[in-house]
Amino acid sequence: MVRCCLKEAKRMDLAVVILVEVLYAIAWLVLVSAGLAVVFGMMKVINLAHGEFMVLGGYATITAVGLGVNIFVAMLIVAPLVVGLFGLIVERLVFRHLYGRMIDTMLASWGLSLMMIGAFKMIFGNTTTGVSGPIPGFTVGNYQINGYNFFIIVVALLLLVAMLAVLRGTRAGLVARGAMQRPDMASAMGHSPDRIYMLTFAIGSALSGLAGAVLAPLIGLVPTAGAGFIAKAFITVIAGGPSLVAGLASASGVFGLVNQFFSFLVSPVVGEVALLVAAVALLRLLPRGITTRFFRGRL
Amino acid sequence: MIVTLNRRSFLASTAAATGALMMPGIARAQDAIRVGTVLDVSGIFDAYGTPMDMAQRLAVSEINDAGGLLDRPVELISYDTQSDIALYTQYAQRLVRQDNVDVVHGGILSASREAIRQTLRRANTLYFYNVQYEGGVCDRNAFFNGVTPAQQAEVLVPWAMSRSGPRVYILAADYNYGQITARWLQKYVADNGGETVGMDFFPLDVSDFGSTIARIQTVAPDLVIAPLVGGAHLSFFRQWAAAGMNARIPLASTTMGVGNEHKVLTPDEGNGMMVAYNYSQELDTPLNNAFKERWIAAYGNTDAIHEIAVSHYMGFHLWAEGVRRAGSVDRDAVIEAMEDGLSVEGPSGMMTIDPQTHHTTLDVHLMEVRDQKMEVAESLSQRPPVDTQAVCNLTENPDDNTQYEIEF
Predict the structure, then answer these.
(1) Do A220 and B231 touch (CB under 8 A)?
(2) Total domains, chain B
(3) Mean of the pLDDT values across residues B350-375?
(4) Is residue A28 part of a domain?
(5) CA dihedral sign of residues B187, B265, B244, B272
(6) What is this structure's pTM?
(7) CA pair distance A163, A34, nearest whole angstrom
(8) What are the pLDDT digits (tens) for B167-225?
(9) Which residues span the domain enclosing A157?
(10) Which of A114, A123, A109 is nearest to A59 (CA)?
C-alpha cells in the first residue's frame, strides 16, 4: 500500500475506535441512569439507594455465576429478577408510605443505602470481587477493541427501545403514565394506583439490577461501589428532564460525548471534570432539563 | 457551699487521676512487649493488608513459641484501618497514647504511611514501614525494608525495554506513590535511551479504562509500565486483556502482583507481565521452603503469601533482632543496635539495614508472570537503596525529617 493511504486507513481505524468508545460511554450512562429515570423521573422518589440497587445486581450476578449459572442468564435474567423483587419488598415496606414526600424519600433511601452497604459487607465481605468478561476482544485495523463494550452498547440500545415500546405501545405503559400524572383519575377509571406504583418501582429496581449486572465484569465490585454511580445517574436524569426515554438518551448523549472528547484530548480525569462542568452549564441554561426545550411532549 | 475549682488544682487532680489510670498500662508493659499494627484488613486494599496481617501473626507466634523476646512474651495489638486514611491517624494515636506500644509496624499505601509517620515520630514510638514504595523518606524514627525505585525500577525498566522497545507509556495511580514512581520511571527510561511517549494518572477509585486503552493504541508504545494500586485498578489489567492488548503490547508493573493480582487474573490475562520484587513464592531456598511450611501449618495453604506480606514478616524479624541485640525495647537502644549493620536472613534472602538511610540492602528478582506464578528470570543480589542514599544521611543529620523527591 502507498504511504498516504496507509495513514488514511489508520485514521479511519482510529475514528472507529473513538466512535465505539463514545457510544460505550453513552450506553454506560443510559444503563446507569435507566432505573433511576423510572423511580425518580416518573415516580418522584429520590432513591439515594440507586447505586446499592446496582451493586446488588452485581453481587446477584457473581453469586449466580459462582453457582454455575451461565453468565448471560445471570446478568440478563437472574440479577433483574432479584433486584426487582428486592425493590418490590422495600416499596411495600418503606416507599409506599412516602409517595409525594420527596425529602422524606431521600432520607429513607439514604438509610436504606447505608443498611445495604452494611449488609453487603456482612454477606460478601468488605473486599473486591469480580467476574471476567465473557466476550473476547477483536481487531479494527491496527486497533483492539474490548468486545464487551459492544455488548453494553447493544443492551443499552435494546433497553431504550424496550422502554419506548412499553410506554408508548402497550396499555400497561399508558396506564402507568396516566397514574403517575393523575392518580385520582386513574383510580376513578378503575385502576389501582397503589398496584401501579408498586409494579413501576419494581421495574425501576430491576433496571438498576440489570445495569449493575452487565457492568459487573468491567469493575472490581466492592460494597461501597454504588457511590461511583449515584452522582452520574442523578445528573443524567435531572439534565434529561421530564421525558423519560428522550431525556435519558439526550442527556446521556451529551455527557458521554463531552466526557470522551476530553478523555481522548487531555486525560480521563479531565474527561470526568468536563462532564460535571457540562452538567452545571446545562442546568444553568435549561434548569428543568433538556426535554423541556427539545423533544417536547415526546416520551 | 461554694466549691472553688481553680485551674491549678484542677490540673493537679486530673493529672493524678490520669496517672492512676495509666498505672495498669505500665505494669502490663513490663511483662509483655507490646507491638502495634495498623493494616487494611478490609476495604479495597484488603488484598494487600490481609496477608500482611497473617504474616504478622505468624511472626509473633514464631517468636512466642521460641520463648518470646528478652524472655518476655510479645503481645500484638492490631487495628483494621478498613482502607480509610482517617482511621490510620485515629488508630496511630490510640496505639501511642492508650495502648503504649513499643513499636508500630504497618501502613500500606504511601499516603497512609505519611498520615501516621509524624504522629509516631512525635510520640517517640519506633515505626517500621515494611512495604515497597517510592523511596526518599529520611526519618531516624522509622525503618523501611521494601524495595525502592533504585532497587526495583532501575533494573525492571531496562530489562522490560530490552524485551520490547524504547517507547514507553506510563499509567500510574494518582497519589504520592504513583506520582513519584512515575518520575523515577521517566528517568530510568531516559537513562536507557528510551522515550516516555505518554503518561496518565488515575484516582484510586477509577475502574473504567476503556478510553485510556484506546488512547494508548493511538500512541502505539513499545511498552506499558503500570504502577497501578488497589482493587479498582485491578480492572485495568482485566480490560487490557479483554481488548486483546496483552498479546500486542508488553506490560511491566512495579505493583502488579504485590496484592496477588496475578492469582486473581486468569492465566490468559496475566501471562507475560514483567515485574521485579524482593520475593517470589517460586524462590527455591531452604529458608523460603521452611517459611512456606510454617505458613501452611498456620493457614492451610500458601495462596495468600505475597511480596509485601513477606516484607512485613521480614520487617518484624529485623525489629526483633534489633531488640535482642539492644537487650531492651527502648527506642534509642533499638535504633543504635539496628544502625550497627544489622541483618536478618529469611524467605526473601538476606536483608541488611543501611545505617545512613534506615532502608535495607536486599535481593531483587526480575520475574515474569506465567500461569498465575512469578517465574524468576534473573536474580540480582544485595542491591543497596542508592536513591535514598543520594539524598539522606541520618548519621550526619539525625534530625532530618523529610521525604526527598526526585527532580525530573
Answers:
(1) yes
(2) 2
(3) 95
(4) yes
(5) positive
(6) 0.80
(7) 9
(8) 999 999 999 999 999 999 999 999 999 999 999 999 887 877 888 888 898 889 999 99
(9) 17-223
(10) A123
